[in-house]
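Task: encode each sequence below as structure tokens.

Item 1
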Amino acid sequence: MSIQSPGLAPAGGQGRINTLYFAVWRWHFYAGLYVIPFVLLLSITGIVMVWFSAIAPEYGERLPVMPQGAALAVQAQADAAAAHAGGTVTQYIAPYGAENPALFRVAVGDAARIVAVNPYDGAVLRDTAEGDTWEELADHLHGELMQTGAAKVWGDLAVEIAASLALLLVATGLYLSWPRNGRTLRDMLVPDLAARGRAFWKSLHLVLGTWLSVILVFFLLSGLSWAGVWGGTFVQAWSTFPAEKWDAVPLSDATHASMNHTAIATVPWALEQTPMPESGSGAGSAGTAPGAAVDLSAVVALARELGFDARFQVNFPQGESGVWTISRDSMSNDSTDPTSDRTLHVDQYSGRILADVGFADYSPAGKAMAVGIPLHMGLMGLWNVVLNIGLCVLLLLIAVAGVVMWWMRRPAGAGRLAAPPRPELVPLTKGVALIGLGLGMAFPVLGLSLLAVLLFDLVVLGAVPPLKRALS
């Protein structure tokens, strides 16, 4: 199979290989034009997010407090937070340990504040408007390019296109760097530090890309699982925990995603699209003490009784049919162990447990994402922080090396892009065709992007000579 200009016959032998090499190089180049700005943006925002989530959290949850005997009742702590912010408490986040404060989300009109409270004396240690953090800003840039409302879809799509084309960059990059024509496996794995000029930058780009290819694919796939098309429409929809597993429990029209209050998602990926249960049916299993008030203190006591230790979260019921939700998951920075993730719903009237979902209940894809998302976010410990920041720095270096290589290859004063030449004949072996078809079917945005670039290269550039010269 081949893409052939009129009047030319297929070439064979080494010419066939060289022609395919130049075609792949050209695809690699054009994909890089779109992806490199996103690599710079996503790497920088990734470093910011990892730093403020794992090293210097901004809501005050890691502030030191001095233990002073027994802690105040959790309701007293909540009352202190509500009085300070002048609103209504809607969420409680237990301290990491005896020397850390508790956090309370306090709704104030249409907004909310996160208040850090000393659990021993009720003193407010920090008061922050929800979402008014560097991590939130970086996350909003990282996922939607700061777009809101209807435009958020387009920001998300632009990032998804970049991540999809980055998969193409990995595949084409490995093909281009594969040993051939005197180049050895050592050249692919060990940088030539003695080289000078463009040869040095090419060696650096090639070797770093080779070593990072596997881990980069993992990060791209885990990131795409959040994206609107491949993630939300395909993978997540197929892998969501089925609410039908909850026996005879009435379901709400609201999903678990309704508990995500800002751009930073805190609800487990496998549950986001799962409907919430409803209160008031008398269904469920034994929970809080019968006849006692089902309030924050009772729900926290139930959580402790069921094995929730250290940091966990309690979301208050939303509306008359809402439920108390007790949760601990690693993507919310509650723990560094994804296998301890657990979400439990309690009827706000009877105190009965309506649903109890843990890591073991997730689908295989749900389990993979339960581990993959905190790993992607750098939340699984210091080693994960070092890994992620190191990866971001190396990706910045790869991108810079690619730009330097292009600049040094570009003819001085050419006034054009100086893209790799487009062969008149591009031989496509069955293997190449099947790989392209498989990637396009597995990642629809990638397939459509490849089709758009191919049509632009073969049709538009051919029909507009000035544009062809500028981009050639």
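Item 2
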Amino acid sequence: MSLTGLQIFKYLPGGKKEKEANCKKCGFPTCMAFAMKLAKKETTLDKCEFISDELKALLEEAGQIQQAEIKFGPAENQITIGNETVMFRHDKKFVNPTCLAIKLNSSDPDFEGKLNKIAGYCVERVGENLKVNAIALADSDNSFAEKAKKVAQAKVPLILISSNVDNVKKALSETKEAKPLVHLENIDISKIIEIEKEFNVPVSITANNLESLVNNSAKALENKSENLVIGLQDMATDSLIENLTYIRRAAIENKFKPLGFPVISFIDKISVIPENIIDKTIWASTLVCKYSNIIVLDYFNEALIYSLLTLRQNIFTDPQKPLQIDSKLYPIGDVDENSPVFVTTNFALTYFTVVSEIEASGMPAYLLITSSDGMSVLTAWSANKFTGETIAKAVKEFNLENIIKHRQLIIPGYVSTLKEEIEEDLPDWETIIGPNDAVDIPDFINTYK
């Protein structure tokens, strides 16, 4: 993990109170200013002629990559995995969302139908389009290369799964531009390295125990192969989670290079998981939370996939930066000058929930979104971010009085105490107390009519 400005400052002349402190030779007024810029990579180490060997060593160590960043898939739909720098989300946001892939057999009689269904699956949640990220194509008949080409033509990131090196080479000759990830099963590590070097594609290295995985990864590193994904398979669930945690800790905290790569997990390669897809999805959700960078599912169920996509979205948001939308006046449906006006904050989940309920009511309406730093209604109100003043400011900023004929604003029932405050700031307007919860908006609108 990178050093902070304060950590760097302690090793500079200013931090050590030496005579060279704040000499300005680096171009900055103080050692603290230089340290802060250095931490942000906005200046270079050589600007200070008094840098100690100890600080140089610390900066070199801090600059080492903890987990490699690997990319695969076509340029226009590329998947990026890895490059994680922390063990826990509250320390700093996780970087690249877990890649969710669906396994298809090349011999599947409904291959094209399933491919089209998976490729076309997309749902919107809080302003983000959620979809399956890749197809993991298993070599199960002579059409492997042909089916790989079809996946590549669909512009879907591809994972090639085979135990036959020649079949993989043939498939790669058809899909090299799509830059697939190659997973060779029961193949000597030297052959896997050859594929990585010959075709310049990422490859996966897996084993059924941690020691073998470390040995295989170390051999790849000795051969200058670093475009790697690693994984464990044929392991019971409790052992798998324990070992995945060990892998992430070894990479992040100890910077142990053989384990410093993204991790791939195959649901159908985990022992003792029941065959039903509910249990498989439960364990897949555990792997989203516990350090798998790629999860390959051997089934496609839209409802269960949605639950995994929702979980992933929540895990990979920045906990210090709430999802928020632009503050403005949103027309919902075929509005006119008589349409009601609802008011709420710019927390994305609040916005999409309210929009959904207004649409369900069948009555077109305006939704006035105030600036509230992405906080929910009660949080913003308690933080003095959702007030009569901010609502009045939004009404004026978005020229509401020239858009509608009436002079009524509907506010959430939980902040009914804002009524007098709003009407004081907007004396020509009436404040209507709406429902507490968005789910009651349709019934409220029937009463409002």
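Check on item 2: The radius of gyration is 28 Å. The first strand starts at residue 69 and ends at 72.
End of task.
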